[in-house]
Amino acid sequence: MKRKAGQDPSITAHWRPATQAIRGGSARTEYGETSEALFLTSGYSYDCAGDAAARFAGEQQGMTYSRLQNPTVEMLEKRIAMLEGAEACRTMASGMAAMTAVLLCQLQAGDHVVAGRAAFGSCRWLTDTLLPKFGIATSLVDARDPQAFQDAVRPETKVFFFETPANPTMDVVDLAAVCGIARERGITSVVDNAFATPALQRPMDFGADVTAYSATKMMDGQGRVLAGAVCGTEDFITNTLLPFTRNTGPTLSAFNAWVVLKGLETLDLRITRQSENALKVGQFLEGRVPTILHPGLASHPQHELAMRQMKAAGTIFAIILDGGREQAHGLLDALQLVDISNNIGDSRSLMTHPASTTHAGMAEDKRLEMGITEGMLRLNVGLEDPQDVIDDLDRALRAVGL
Fold it and tell me: Is residue 328 within 8 Å of residue 353, measured between CB atoms?
């Protein structure tokens, strides 16, 4: 492919995020296409056997196999890295593939992880179930308290792993404080930034070493494909993460990469508008429901911290009803516009009951320890007119006596 401005650091270094989201990483073929080319190929041919040997030996530039490199995937990786302010990025087949790889690639038996207690159910399965199988210990802490990370550190601690905002409790982590503790101790900080994306929050600006994503969420943003990504230094991505992914194969398909590339072009527009919509919906619900967990509202205990770290509070928040599962399910069943769905980051408004969906695999005592009660509902506010979403919620709330 012909090298163009989208990959020339002397040019791209001066681009602002909105430009990076459209043109970052792009490379055109000899046909001069304006939209990124979609390379649906599993392998590549060589002019001679010597070229094949040279590429596998790392002595010649070029691609060898789509488990390792693909032109469309490479464009996406370069674009995400630029938006993140990272040296490099590696994409994967899903968000959970990214979370699994970013932990296992750097840990071994005898190591220790300090992880945020509030997390997506599958991330808690990694820390609670998978890592111990390999002799890797985990301490779960209230990530809202930086001192909790400090107190949990052991000589064998290798990683801090946490979400901010957390799914679905919307706990906010003080990035500068926690990542600072990690740096002082030589510990790698890994931040799941899926709720915010680099459009709203760049953890590396606050000292994070690695960021991990479910690009299925806001980066695609329209509920179409699965994708994951990990960003970090060139050394970490090439020498720590890549050997793991090369040999285990959590590869992102070229088609899915192309779809996410298209999603990134409108990421800032979508997440900005959806954040505005979510705040309007949250303001309607405040006072109408017993508890609302929305970092964009002054009532959130970490509102000021969230606004220091984030451009906006994002599209997702939670409410808690006093009537338990029966009332929560009743509200969901009364919705006419908002879909019942466990996905997030979609342009459509979606609502789910975490205790019976995203966190159903966790024991009840662990859910309660996180703050996930039977009355909790998580809401992703989309791009519809926010008044229509409010009207739908108002109707559903009245149906369950609120």
Answer: yes
**Token reading at 127:** 């820390």
pLDDT in tens, 259-310: 999 999 999 999 999 999 999 999 999 989 999 999 999 999 999 999 999 9
CA distance 246 to 30: 29
pTM of the model: 0.95
Distance from the Cα of residue 105 to its chain's centroid: 18
Q: Is residue 342 within 8 Å of 353, Cβ to Cβ? A: no
Write the DSSP symbol of residue 286. B
Spatial distance between the Cα atoms of 131 and 112, rounded to a whole number of angstroms:
9
Condensed to tens digits (0 to 9), the pLDDT of residues 122-148 reads: 999 999 999 999 999 999 999 999 999
Residue 205 has pLDDT above 60, yes or no: yes
To the question of domain 5-265 being in CATH 3.40.640.10, the answer is yes
User: Strands of 157-163's sheet, edge to edge?
Assistant: 88-92, 228-232, 210-214, 188-192, 157-163, 112-116, 137-141
Tell me the H-state helices in 186-219.
Answer: 197-200
Residue 75: partners with Cβ closer than 8 Å, 6 or more residues away: 6, 25, 26, 27, 36, 257, 261
Residue 34, class by beta-carbon neighbours within 10 Å (0-12 exposed, 13-18 middle, 19+ buried)? Answer: exposed
pLDDT in tens, 73-97: 999 999 999 999 999 999 999 999 9
The helix or strand, by DSSP H or E, that contains position 211, with its residue range, turns out to be strand 210-214
> Looking at the chain, which residues constitute the CATH 3.40.640.10 domain(s)?
5-265
Residues forming CATH 3.90.1150.10 domain(s) in the chain: 269-399
The candidate with the shortest Cα–Cα distance to 235, out of 86, 92, 82, is: 86
Buried b (16+ CB within 10 A) or exposed e, 148-174: bbbebbeeebbbbbbbbbbbbbbbbbb
CATH architecture of the domain with range 269-399: Alpha-Beta Complex (3.90)
